[in-house]
């Protein structure tokens, strides 16, 4: 197909010719034997291919429509390849003949098909695999070009099939194989457009309006908020090299993929294994595209995967974690060595300690709650989230929080002075840093009263006098 | 002479009344908006003549009595040309319903041939796609809610977004639409007579223009309203079918042209 | 007397037996299960199942078609030309019309003469419901347009002597080789 295209245009570009030679040899690769592909759910990746010849690979993939969790307390009806979002990871070798069987579960409401970007042929297999509920389709293709490719459903309306979760990755390994690494993981970003806002509880149907406006409520890795964080963080040991197969199902957004605290030693941009960029901080992963990134982890700790379009990470869920344990290389990273007061321009200018005069003072409890919400939205919400649910293992919850309700004075103190080090909230350990908040006594009283009187908390009131008392201790 | 004429008219009326079951309703003539453009002018509507349509989808009970009278359509008799191996899958045997096939629930796992034969046995036909879409454009309060009423569209879309689970509930439990027809939405997909009229390839992204190699046809193509996802899904669903397919959430109802 | 009765039953049994045996001979997926009546270009009424026994190349057309239908016919020629002479004579080509209104036997006859269709070609016309059923069996999608023309998918089917579709060629200008191969197989 590509060759034809080149000939038709009369082009004789080197890249084109080379790729043709490659394709030509792959088309003619001798097929030896037959095997059934091992498919894995994210974040797992099937084992590397060790055989040195092309073979016939049989892929069985089932489409099904299932109610699953999109976030804590939020359900969504996902349309899936293989029962999970993202779909099963498929791994084949350059030159392989792939016999693809697409089975559509009898309980599906929709017909489905598959467009594999690894296919050279009309629709990437979409027409040949168009399958009614309770039926199966078979087609085959040659894996001609090595690379990491997205596959997705292409049944009308395509946008909705993708928005509901129908995408995954297929890796075509080059015939010489990929360099050995210690760990490989499968991470796929995508967005969800729900009737309710982020965090709204219960079953959330798809919102077409938001999808058209490209304004998602959720941007997530591996199909749900916290799918790869907390207990489900991706494990690694110090000194190991990690390879991430990163896909972006879209349907709309381009990802600025970044791992906080890491530099990618190697990136195969856009999933092209013949191209290698080195020393990359953030790599773009287009909707319907991919990237392969590799890096060595030298220091223990939590490395956070984000879409560096950063509001997606902190407000829509695009956050994952790699949990690295083992011996640290202090040579590479020292950790914090010292903490002391910083006086700019010598020490002549002191911090202004006086509270700026409060503009408005709450006259009653209702006003205290109202003003408190404003303070909360401006100062607290980014980390503790709209409903005080907190975020992953990074930010503890304020909703129904035993830690908060146990001690009012302590809560005031935390806001005044900040908090560092491990604490246990509702049975979970959080070990992070909250900076001191520069708020007036009035503001702190308002925001704490607001928090205490919402989200299942104890209902206590906090007055500016309470705050003053703690401040003066 | 005049008396004779009246008697004659009364007879005709009587005959009509006797043969028409009270379980169908008459729809006025009108126009419906096709999914795909019929001409370059996307405001073009398709005329639908007055016709009768069943109030409810055909139920398991209805279909049991049909196969009892037409043993050709029993599970054990029907050749695979007419119905796939899953035909009436939820039934216990040829004429007994299973736990997952309540009497009053719509019959599913039914092929186009079987549905067509059922309707013909009642002196009716399957509705055409135009008739079905015309009737189904109506909400309980508006004739053309599907084109105008975003909340109606949204409701339908939400149903499409959820998988089916058996047993299905009884027909006629939701509100009837403005014509008095029940369950066109939010129950099961329904066969139409010309389900195989879709000149699409399953490659939905290319179907904006007609593939001249695959299809003989002239003039315009492309959709009238690219945002009408619910209709898109019905067309995609129909185009995935073959006449002997039987599907877990696909049933049917009958219609009748006026003579 | 008893013999008579016995004889009567024997006849009944034998004739009944033959009838069932015949329908049972058909494979489950045979298109000849269809109860489908057609008129030929000569005005003769036939049942679809009368076509049993021969290998057929089947397609659906309408005679007022300006574009694809002549191309389909030329695609069929490409298939038949690729066959050995002996098979060329034996394979039958059946064209079924989409258009119950305009395609009367007379119109079919004219079309057949104009396109110099040979003696092993036949054209058939019927009513709307019969056409819709056959299209469903042949996997042909079609739709009557407002201008009276038909939009339809271009499918050429190779049907064996039992009425089972053994091969389909989709789209115009397709490579005739697989179809030729399948037809040859029928005569092996």
Structural commentary:
The complex is a heterotrimer of chains A (473), B (259) and C (188). Chain A has eleven helices and 23 strands. Chain A has 473 residues and is α/β, with parallel strands linked by helices. In chain A, helix 6 crosses helix 10, helix 9 packs across helix 11 and helix 10 packs across helix 11. The longest helix of chain A has 15 residues. Chain B is α+β, with helices and mostly antiparallel strands and 259 residues long. Chain B has a single domain, classed as paralog of FGE (formylglycine-generating enzyme) (Alpha-Beta Complex). About 8% of the residues of chain B have low confidence. By secondary structure, chain C is an alpha+beta fold. Chain C has a single domain, classed as Glutaredoxin (3-Layer(aba) Sandwich), CATH 3.40.30.10. In chain C, strands 2-1-5-4-3-8-9 form a seven-stranded mixed β-sheet, sandwiched between helices. In chain C, strands 6-7 form a two-stranded antiparallel sheet. In chain C, a hairpin with a 4-residue loop joins strand 1 and strand 2. The longest helix of chain C has 24 residues. The termini of chain C are far apart. Chains in contact: A-B, B-C. At the A-B interface, strand 2 of A face helix 6 and helix 7 of B.
């Amino acid at each position: 197909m590509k060759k034809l295209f080149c000939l038709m245009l009369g082009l004789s570009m080197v890249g084109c010719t080379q790729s043709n030679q490659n394709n030509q040899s792959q088309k003619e690769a001798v097929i030896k034997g037959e095997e059934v592909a091992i498919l894995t759910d994210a974040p797992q990746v099937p084992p590397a291919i060790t055989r040195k010849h092309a073979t016939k690979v049989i892929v069985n993939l089932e489409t099904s429509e299932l109610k699953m969790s999109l976030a804590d307390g939020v359900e969504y009806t996902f349309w899936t390849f293989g029962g999970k979002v993202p779909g099963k990871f498929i791994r084949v070798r350059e030159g392989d003949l792939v016999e693809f069987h697409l089975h559509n579960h009898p309980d599906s409401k929709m017909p489905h098909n598959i467009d594999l970007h690894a296919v050279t042929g009309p629709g990437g297999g979409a027409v040949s695999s168009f399958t009614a509920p309770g039926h199966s389709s078979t087609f085959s293709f040659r894996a001609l070009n090595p690379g990491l490719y997205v596959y997705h459903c292409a049944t009308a309306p395509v946008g909705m099939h993708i928005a509901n979760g129908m995408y995954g990755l297929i890796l075509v390994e080059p015939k010489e194989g990929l360099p050995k690494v210690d760990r490989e993981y499968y991470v796929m970003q995508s967005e969800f457009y729900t009737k309710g806002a982020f965090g709204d509880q219960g079953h959330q149907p798809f919102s077409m309006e938001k999808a058209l406006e490209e304004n998602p409520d959720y941007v997530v890795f591996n199909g749900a908020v916290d799918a790869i964080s907390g207990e489900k963080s991706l494990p690694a040991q110090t000194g190991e090299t990690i390879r991430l197969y990163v896909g972006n199902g879209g349907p709309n957004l381009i990802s600025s993929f970044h791992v906080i605290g890491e530099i990618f030693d190697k990136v195969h941009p856009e999933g092209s294994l013949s191209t290698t960029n080195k020393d990359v901080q953030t790599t773009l992963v287009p909707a319907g595209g991919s990237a392969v990134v590799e890096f060595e982890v030298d220091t223990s700790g939590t490395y956070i995967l984000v879409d560096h379009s950063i509001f997606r990470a902190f407000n829509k869920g695009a956050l994952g974690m790699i949990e690295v344990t083992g011996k640290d290389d202090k040579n590479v990273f020292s950790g914090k060595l010292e903490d002391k007061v910083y006086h700019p321009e010598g020490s002549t200018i002191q911090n202004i300690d006086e509270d700026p005069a409060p503009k408005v003072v709450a006259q009653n409890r209702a006003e205290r709650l109202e003003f408190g919400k404003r303070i909360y939205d401006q100062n607290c919400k980014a980390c503790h989230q709209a409903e005080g649910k907190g975020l992953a293992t990074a930010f503890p919850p304020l909703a129904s929080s035993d830690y908060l309700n146990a001690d009012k004075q302590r809560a005031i103190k935390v806001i005044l002075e900040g908090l560092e080090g491990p604490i246990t909230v509702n049975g979970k350990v959080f070990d992070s840093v909250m900076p001191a908040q520069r708020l007036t006594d009035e503001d702190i009283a308002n925001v704490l009263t607001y928090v205490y009187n919402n989200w299942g908390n104890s209902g206590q009131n906090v007055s500016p006098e309470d705050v003053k008392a703690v401040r003066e201790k | 002479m005049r008396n004779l004429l009246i008697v004659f008219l009364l007879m005709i009326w009587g005959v009509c009344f006797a043969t028409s079951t009270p379980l169908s309703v008459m729809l006025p003539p009108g126009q419906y908006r096709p999914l795909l453009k019929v001409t370059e002018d996307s405001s073009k509507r398709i005329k639908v003549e007055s016709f009768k349509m069943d109030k409810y989808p055909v139920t398991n009970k209805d279909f049991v009595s049909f196969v009892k009278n037409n043993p050709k359509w029993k599970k054990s008799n029907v050749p695979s040309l007419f119905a796939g191996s899953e035909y009436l899958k939820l039934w216990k045997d040829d004429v007994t319903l299973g736990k997952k096939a309540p009497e009053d629930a719509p019959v599913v796992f039914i092929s186009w041939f079987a549905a067509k034969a059922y309707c013909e046995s009642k002196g009716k036909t399957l509705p055409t796609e135009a008739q079905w879409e015309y009737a189904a454009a109506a909400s309980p309060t508006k004739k053309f809610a599907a084109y105008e009423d975003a909340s109606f569209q949204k409701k339908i879309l939400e149903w499409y977004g959820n998988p089916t689970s058996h047993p299905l509930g009884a027909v006629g439990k939701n509100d009837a639409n403005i014509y008095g027809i029940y369950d066109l939405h939010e129950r099961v997909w329904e066969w139409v007579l010309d389900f195989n009229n879709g000149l699409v390839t399953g490659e939905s992204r290319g179907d904006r223009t007609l593939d001249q190699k695959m299809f003989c046809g002239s003039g315009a193509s492309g959709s009238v309203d690219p945002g009408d996802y619910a209709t898109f899904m019905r067309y995609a669903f129909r185009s995935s079918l073959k006449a002997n397919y039987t599907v877990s959430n696909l049933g049917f109802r009958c219609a009748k042209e006026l003579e | 007397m008893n013999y008579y009765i016995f004889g009567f039953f024997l006849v009944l049994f034998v004739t009944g037996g033959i009838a069932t045996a015949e329908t049972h001979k058909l494979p489950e997926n045979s298109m000849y299960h269809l109860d489908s009546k057609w008129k030929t270009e000569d005005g003769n009424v036939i049942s679809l199942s009368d076509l049993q026994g021969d290998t057929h190349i089947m397609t659906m057309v309408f005679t007022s078609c300006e574009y694809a239908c002549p191309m389909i016919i030329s695609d069929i020629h490409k298939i038949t030309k690729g066959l050995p002479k002996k098979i060329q004579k034996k394979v039958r080509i059946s064209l079924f019309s989409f258009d119950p209104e305009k395609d009367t036997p007379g119109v079919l006859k004219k079309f057949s003469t104009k396109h110099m269709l040979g003696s092993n070609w036949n054209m058939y016309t019927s009513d709307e419901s019969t056409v819709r059923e056959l299209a469903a069996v042949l996997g042909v999608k079609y739709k009557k347009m407002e201008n009276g023309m038909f939009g339809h998918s271009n499918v050429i089917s190779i049907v064996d002597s039992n009425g089972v579709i053994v091969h389909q060629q989709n789209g115009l200008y397709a490579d005739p080789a697989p179809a030729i191969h399948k037809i040859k197989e029928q005569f092996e």
